[in-house]
Specification:
Helix content is 59%, strand content 0%. About 16% of the residues have low confidence.
């Protein structure tokens, strides 16, 4: 099923992995296969089907929200060199998002630029984190809805809460590369990422 050519089936497989992870991984059958599941989720996060990629991207948040910090560190730690750049790559504005955001004011006479969009931090679809805050959490009012960009940022946020400053060596070189980029969209990713990890990684 995981290798099905049907994106609907792949999406359901990803949803199952996310749901099982949210329920906990104490069952030995599930724990013994976690490495295979992580490998699959790494691959599926790059799925050409956007719905599949978005569904499986929820896995990283689900894994880190279980409350078993030490166990999660042991499970996910060896994969940080692959997970972190993967999530950053998914935090770039898509063309569809740009079309919506930059078209809101119908200001077609003004060239698009980095000042036209503000970085925002999202804590996850259905998350109860910081419900009382007046910050930039996803609240359903965003015209583009829940996207893989927001989901990846939420995943990085929760990973930083699990690993704290230990995440920084994996993240800092990538952020520096993006900040030095001539592409403002890549620089914006670093700004978004810094906001996402501020509470967990940079305390």
């Amino acid at each position: 099923l995981a290798t099905s050519q049907d994106p609907i089936i792949r999406k359901h497989v990803c949803h199952t992995f996310v749901t099982l992870t949210e329920m906990g991984i104490s069952h030995e059958f599930f724990k013994s296969r976690m490495n295979n599941i992580i490998e699959y989720c790494l691959h599926a996060t790059n799925d050409q089907n956007e719905e599949v990629a978005l569904e499986v991207c929820e896995f990283w948040t689900a894994l880190c929200r279980r409350g078993e910090v030490e166990e999660t560190q042991q499970i996910l730690g060896p994969y940080l060199p692959r997970v972190v750049p993967l999530l950053l790559s998914k935090m770039v504005y898509s063309q569809a998002e740009l079309d919506v955001y930059l078209g809101i004011d119908d200001d077609s006479s003004t060239p698009d630029g980095e000042g036209d969009l503000k970085p925002s931090i999202h804590h996850g679809r259905g998350s109860s984190d910081n419900d009382d805050d007046d910050g930039d959490d996803f609240d359903g009012s965003d015209p583009v809805g829940w996207t893989i960009r927001k989901c990846a940022a939420a995943g990085l946020d929760h990973i930083s809460n699990v690993f704290g400053s230990d995440l920084w060596p994996h993240l800092q070189p990538l952020l520096q590369t993006n900040f030095n980029s001539q592409n403002w969209l890549e620089r914006e990713v670093s700004v978004l990422a810094l906001g996402a990890v501020a509470d967990g990684c940079l305390e």
